Amino acid sequence: MSNSDVAKCPKNLIPEYAFIGRSNVGKSSLINMLTSRKSLAKTSGRPGKTQLINHFLINKNWYLVDLPGYGYARVSKSAKKTFQKFITQYFSLREQLVSAFVLVDIRHNPQPIDLEFMQWLGENGIPFSIIFTKADKLRPKAIENHVEAYKTIMLETWEEMPNYFITSSSKDIGKDDVLKYIDDLNSNMTID
Description:
By secondary structure, this protein is of the alpha/beta class. It has a single domain (2-186), classed as Rossmann fold (3-Layer(aba) Sandwich), CATH 3.40.50. Helix content is 34%, strand content 19%. It has five helices and seven strands. The chain has helices spanning 27-35, 77-93, 112-123, 140-154, 175-187; strands at 2-3, 16-21, 53-58, 62-66, 97-105, 128-133, 164-166. Strands 1-3-4-2-5-6-7 form a seven-stranded mixed sheet, sandwiched between helices. The longest helix is centred in the middle third of the chain and has 17 residues, at 77-93.
């Protein structure tokens, strides 16, 4: 199901996990890796391809929610405002949301736009984990250094570092860890 109106999202109480990140972070590739489907989420060389709230029902058990990226998308300011509005509404109104996954490109130093978005989630009491993407592009020591850079900055304002995963869609790195985490959350949950 795809739409731009949060009120039209599925009404059932199936748990939802929302995936969001800056444009061009590799979100579609990650979703395709997690679902073992090559073209479930459309990949593109042009950032900003996702422009709707997309619900994918996984094993009749939970929804993977693909949200539009924030920042850098080559779309008009009015379109960007529309995205931001329904992203904010989604996070504010969806009782089915169990956790968000904020995707961050491991190759870059901590970006203010990512840090600000995670701060907003924290201030609004929305549980989230970080998924560091594109780990195949760096050596293990560089990955460690980049994660440490995030920890250093985040621990200036956070009590503890949020849960995080290291992934690479092209190498299937982190797939089992993310899916096990979702499975564990689902098995420990009771929805009224």
